[in-house]
Amino acid sequence: MAPESEYWNPVLETLDPERLRDLQLAKFKRIFAWAYERSRFHRRLYDEAGIVPADIRTFEDIARVPKVEKSMMRGVQRKDPFPYGDALCVPLEEVSEFRQTSGTTGQPVYQADTWQDWEWWAECWAHILWAQGYRPSDRVFIPFGYNIFVAFWAGHYAAEKIGCEVVPGGVLDTQARILKIQELKATAMMATPTYVLGMAETAKAKMDIDPATLGIQKITCAGEPGAGIPATKQRMESAWNAKVYDHAGATEIGAWSYECRHQPGGMHVNEAFFLVEIEDMDTGEIISAPGRRGKMVITALDRMAQPCIRFDSKDVIQWDAEPCSCGRTFALIKGGVLGRADDITKVKGVLLAPAAIEEVVRSIEGLGDEYEVVVDKLGDVDRIKLKVEAAPGAEDRVRELEARLKDQLRVQTNLGYRIEFYDPGKLPRYEVKAKRFKDMRKKKEA
Amino acid sequence: MAASSRPIHEKIQTLKAAAEDLAAAGGDIPAVARNTARILASVRMLEMGISDLFDLGVLDGARADGRPAG
């Protein structure tokens, strides 16, 4: 193997765009026909829409295929073939892996994978890790629970596939994990942004260890926004003295996008394995022009047991006009995943994406990493409150910090906020994924 | 690079055929059957990486939408 190769698979990663589109169309036809023949759920969906495999001749025909929503998967599951229901395309005895979604948006969705699908997960992640500079000389520490959520399972197997040494950091608590990283001189790590910052805080505040001295050179983040928010990325990189790379994936989709080590301000879509369409959130029109935000509809072109075909992900993305200096022909989504269509809400008549608040909070030196946003109503009037912590040593700068916060929030979100300051360590801490945006209006309406 | 990977594609297909023969010959032996199944899953990854470009006509032959190959 050539460790000096920039690409895990240069044949695919530098394939000319026209050939890439040909590959996507051919693969879409194949997976559509596979699901049509083998899944009663997909057959019903497509029969109702009056579409059959022979109808898919050109790229434009793909948009005629009905989308799948997460709620539809919830509806067919917990039935025979148990527990996956009739979206399963293989005999139950060929399923070797069970995972489920986190359940943050409702009842968890179960995901079946065959051993081939599981190898596919590792292959997708191998593209990611190689692009982020992981090499056989790396000792990779993975501090996650190795449980029913897909999380970093495939990252573990991909790191092995690449030839890295993998240290599974499950079961250990945060302090034990930090000590193990120190003891073994791990060079790379994978975690959610919340946990990356949380580990850094624990190391500094409870162990008198500067995480920047631990020798971690690269960190792959996934599971929640953060590594794609510049101020959060900068805080993580500064805390660990490491490069931090973003990745977006999902249990029901796969590992579809990643930031490469050139850090182009966005993420590559693995277009050889996934077909990404961007849909205008108002008109439903497919957007091909760069710079226009829309909702991602995605197909995993090679996932066989429980296919993902034109899945309405609710992720908001936009194409980047510029190619990446890494030389990959895989298209970039500018800024990564910009938010979720179901997170974007109106407050006082103004559209608000929670990620914009995070960017402001984390760009202000003197504020702690944690924050919380609470939206409620007084009578008919929306109110929005931001809770923040002063960083240790900045407690006497609260008035100055509050003024800067209000100013920048007004510019970035066009809203006025009530600001509440808390002492360091007083706001909730999250172990894995954070829930910092609380809309009390929805709870009341429910 | 894509077009010059035909020799690799051909070797992948040779490997696949050998693994399928092995599965057929030793399928009554669980150790052979299960290990061969894993080999074939790995071969499928090689196909996704190289052979699909040839098998799906992306690199030679007709385009997927029926237009002539450029």
One letter per element, helices H and strands E, the order of chain B comes to HH
Strand elements of chain A, count: 21
Terminal Cα span of chain A: 57 Å
Quaternary assembly:
heterodimer
The CATH class label of the largest domain in chain A is: Alpha Beta
Strand order of the largest sheet of chain A: 4-3-5-6-7-8-9-14
- Report low-confidence residues of chain B grouped into runs of 5 or more: none
From the helix content, strand content and strand pairing of chain B, which structural class follows? Answer: mainly alpha
Could you say what the CATH architecture of the largest domain in chain A is? Answer: 3-Layer(aba) Sandwich
CATH domain fold name of the largest domain in chain A:
Rossmann fold
The shape of chain A is globular
Give your account of this protein's structure:
The complex is a heterodimer of chains A (446) and B (70). Chain A contains 12 helices and 21 strands. With 446 residues, chain A is α/β, with parallel strands linked by helices. Chain A has 2 domains: 1-340, ANL, N-terminal domain (Rossmann fold); 345-445, 2-Layer Sandwich (GMP Synthetase, Chain A, domain 3), CATH 3.30.300.30. An 8-stranded mixed beta sheet of chain A has the order 4-3-5-6-7-8-9-14. A 5-stranded antiparallel beta sheet of chain A has the order 11-10-12-13-15, with no helix packed on it. In chain A, strands 20-19-18-21 form a 4-stranded mixed beta sheet. In chain A, helix 2 packs across helix 3, helix 8 runs parallel beside helix 9 (230-240) and helix 9 packs across helix 10. The termini of chain A are far apart. Chain B is mainly α. Chain B has one domain. Chain B has 2 helices and no strands. In chain B, helix 1 runs antiparallel to helix 2. The longest helix of chain B is centred in the middle third of the chain and has 26 residues, at 30-55. The chains are: A alpha/beta (446), B mainly alpha (70). Chain A binds chain B through residues 9-12, 14-16, 18-19, 22-23, 25-27, 29-30, 57-59, 114-116, 118-120, 123, 272-273, 302, and chain B through 1-2, 5, 37-38, 40-42, 44-45, 48-50, 52-53, 56-59, 63-66, 70.
